[in-house]
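Hi everyone,

Forwarding the result from last night's run.
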Amino acid sequence: MLSKATKRLYFVKLLKRAGVPSVHNAHLQHFYVAVIRPVLEYAAPVWHHLGLLTNCQSDQIEAIQKRTINIIHNPTRGMPYSNALFFADLRSH
């Protein structure tokens, strides 16, 4: 699951490197929410309810989201994660 999400995140990185104007950050974020995040959240309520998701795995999922926010929204680099989530108008997993 993490590998699959990371591969999709690479596409966002390529778009950003190609010089997608910052006015299109909303499009990049929409791509994340529509294409990458579902991979990370698939069956997450079941995993959490049954205790099958370790803290380490949960942290890895959050790390992918944090990387995505930093790629899409440059001002969030170095910002605390909770502030970056607020800036990007996203919620934690």
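Residues 55-72 form the longest helix (18 residues).

Cheers,
N.
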